[in-house]
Each structure stands twice: as C-alpha cells, then as structure tokens.
Automatic annotation (TrEMBL):
Sensor of abasic sites in single-stranded DNA (ssDNA) required to preserve genome integrity by promoting error-free repair of abasic sites. Acts as an enzyme that recognizes and binds abasic sites in ssDNA at replication forks and chemically modifies the lesion by forming a covalent cross-link with DNA: forms a stable thiazolidine linkage between a ring-opened abasic site and the alpha-amino and sulfhydryl substituents of its N-terminal catalytic cysteine residue. The HMCES DNA-protein cross-link is then either reversed or degraded. Residues 293-354 are annotated as: Disordered. Belongs to the SOS response-associated peptidase family. This is Abasic site processing protein HMCES. Keywords: Covalent protein-DNA linkage, DNA damage, DNA-binding, Hydrolase, Lyase, Protease. Gene3D superfamilies: SOS response associated peptidase-like.
Amino acid sequence: MCGRTSCHLPKEVLARACAYRDRQGQRRLPEWRDPDRYCPSYNKSPQSSSPVLLSRLHVEKGADSSERIIAPMRWGLVPSWFKEADPSKLQYNTSNCRSDTIMEKRSFKVPLGKGRRCVVLADGFYEWQRCQRTNRTQPYFIYFPQIKTEKSESMGAADGPEDWEKVWDNWRPLTMAGLFDCWEPPEGGDCLYSYTIITVDSCKGLNGIHHRMPAILDGEEAVSMWLDFGEVSAQEALKLIHPTENITFHRVSSVVNSSRNNTPECLLPLRLLGRKELKASGSSQKMLQWLATKSPKKQDTKTPQKAESDVPQWSSQFLKKSPLSPKRGGADLLERWLKREKEEEPVAKRPHTQ
C-alpha cells in the first residue's frame, strides 16, 4: 500500500526534475497548472494535495498527447459519477487502487477507460513494518537510488537558501502510476480533480517491510507510455504495472507517524538522528535559524518575492516540536545523508503487514 509520501521540492526544481522529450524529440519542461495550490511537504497524507503529471490533451482540446503538465490534485479519487454534494462522504477508501482488481471496480475502470492516467510525483513514500513480537511499527522512507553529481559532492556546508536549493537540485523524484478523475458538484461549482495510486505486490527487497508497494514507473520510456493515452491503449499501458527492484530505503524516526509533523526529520535516516557525537557547525546553526524564520504556508501574492527563489519553507511551530536538539542540527544531518554516506540498514527477513 501507499498511505504517506514526501514531496517538498520547490516548483521549479520539481519541473526540472520532470524534463522530457516530446514526440518531435524536443526537450521540454512540463508546464504547471494551478501552481498556487501546490504545498510542499515532508509528510503528505490522503486528502491532501499532491503534484501529478498528466497529458496536456486532458486539459487542452487538440493538444499533442505527448506533451505534459503538472497539476496539484486531491489524493483519494472521487469518481465522476458520485452523487453526494460532499466528497468526504464517499464510503470507501480510494487513495490506493489494487492492480489485480482495477478492471473490476467502477471507480477505477471508468477513468482508466477514458485514458485518465497520471504519474504521481514524490521524493519518496513511507511504509511501516510491524514487529510481530512487540506489535510495534518501524517507519521506513523508500525512494529511487540517487546518483552523485558534481554539484551535490561539492556541497561542503549549507550556509543559506541558495546552497540548500543546490542540495536537492538533482534529486530524482519517485514516479508512481496513478489514475485521476474529475468530479463536478451536483449543485454546481468548480470541478474537483483527484487521483489514486496503483499498487502491486512488493518486490523482494521490500517484502520484509510490507507486502504491497506503489506501481513505480522506472524510466522515461515507462512514464511516457503511461501518460500518452492518445497513442498507447489501456491494455498496453497496464503491462507497465509491476514491481520494480530499483528502489532503496532506510529507517526513519517515528516523528513521521503523525501527518501534522512536517520537518526534514521525517525522512532523515534514523541512524544519523541517533548519532549523539554529531555537532552542528556554524553554518548549520545559521541554517537552523533560517529554517525557524520560514513558513510552509502559500506565498502571499501581494508580498514581493525574489525572482526564481523557490526554496522549501518550514514552520517554526513544527521545529519546536522536533525531537532533534540544536546540537545535532537537522540541516547538517540532511546534508550528510545527501552526500551519500554509506547505509548499513538491515533488511527484514519476513513480510509483515500494518
């Protein structure tokens, strides 16, 4: 299953990470639609808004189906045929869609038949492993293996917002197969776009954590085929839905258990959080002060902002609740992890369910 994700990258960084080639072979960036509705977060849960990729043909009649846009959508598909005035009254959970029953349930079969396929974007997703002996759970952060770049290796310290942006500038987002639908309120009003994440049996590497995982589209060709409903039939597209082994993970703090917590500690390796000998450098102290002055709320369009300054923002109210002491330095720890310090996490031997 997939019930919690992280997607904190700034809009422009996320768009660059989703660069693609159209049918003519021209390199392009997907265009944002309703960008003000995108709220970066380290801890997204169902019914929140998350960015998805979809074909431009869905929103522009006559457009090339190979062209893409990014649009924030509600997590938890509300079927177009739902008759109630309040979408929260939907009686069943549609945040995930099992691949083996996708053609049996009307909520998913109808949008699939209409070509309403999308790609859900995230830094990665969280899953909880249950210990049968103690009945306690251990959260994990699961994501694509990241490739070292000259830019990321040159980061000695994050002294300010510009440096912080460079740390994440080469992150490869997780691309999960999804379906979306458009629901129109019976009494009129704006259409609600919402999505579901397709799930499959876990790969061998994740089976010890949970028996289900998102259907991950690994590579540009898979993403292109899934999105291009104008050229690729549903039957052909469904062949892309299967487990992938190209995934990595690490244990994280239980701070992620509550979706109200939205700090970098949600996805930091637990091993780094537990290192008492780590001390914050002067630059890390500056970073913590900078983090404490920022807010995760949407930017006020009336307030002048620096051009191209899409730096992730966090709320000081969350930082106050963080289990990290200033001496450990959340920014310093995240920097150390992103420099690819070798992980030595044990892999669970038996599957457990949440």
